[in-house]
Amino acid sequence: MSFLSAVSELLHPAPPPSPPVQQVLDRIAAIVAPMLKADPAFERHLAAPVEYALGYCDGLIAGLPGPIEISHHAFAADPLVHALFATADDVGQMLGRSQAVRDYLADPACYASDHFYALFAARRHEKRQLGMSVQGDLVQTEVPQRVLYFADQTLVEPSCSLEQTLRKLHLRAIDSLLLSFHDHVEALRAEREGLRSDLSVERAHLTVLKGATAGPAYTVHTRHIDEIDAQLRRAAAALLPENLVNALAEFLHTPEASLNLTPVSISIDHMGVVSDAAGSDVHTINFPELNARDRRHYLVMLARVDREEARAAVERVRDQQHRFMLI
Fold this sequence. Notes:
Elements: H1 3-11, H2 19-31, H3 42-62, E1 68-69, H4 72-77, H5 79-84, H6 88-97, H7 99-106, E2 115-135, E3 138-159, H8 162-211, H9 216-238, H10 241-252, E4 260-268, E5 283-291, E6 297-306, H11 307-326
Parallel strand pairs: 1-6
Antiparallel strand pairs: 2-3, 2-6, 4-5, 5-6
Helix pairs in contact: 2-3, 2-8, 3-8, 3-10, 6-11, 8-9
């Protein structure tokens, strides 16, 4: 920073961060590394990138489709819900086994509404099989087919108000970005520790060579130690608070690289067979897939669930578990 820039900042200090930005700055210290606050430019360098990331997450959450009804009835009435579950009973199994739903129903606040809202997520899979195809009067057997199905269905952040669910999901989106950068910091630390170990081993080996006849092997080994030492210095420098703050600022200016929604459109029949042909039995389902820090893709959309249907599902699952324990 130039002298004139430093004087200008003293005479015209930057305004304090807004409450949402300050909340994320506090989360950065808690999730990424407390030592980042040791950098005098922590707030000044990160305020604008954090504000940009907050706006990106606003758009990401606003882009979620729904809410769609997740229920036993919707399985028969909605082609999308029909595709998301293998059977109508699987809807109840998901509701009954969800710890998030159980926790929500245990809170007296759940009685504020007959329905609750949540983020529905599931993983998309495809399998190949040989099946039957009917085209007009022509019936073919042993036809190669692609079958779409979903697994790991779950509900996230249930709440009796859609606005509250959206607020919680926004915080989760920000935390996901910070956790992704935390993973990067942990990888740097692991690299540094690995280089330290390698350097220690190589220096011990060099001591043995030094005690023997000095020659080309000693020279080559010395050069190798210098290379490891240079790598270690770079790894250690990357972990300095000021360098981590700069790296985090760049990371938050490109949040789409670590957290994004990809639109998907697939035409399937009532059995989940992917089809390019048009027909009354073929429906096109549209949904976004979330790409986040664990690199697995999840279908995501907002869901609306009847509270009493969820409560009955929880009771059925508890009864099944109790019977299983008795057997």
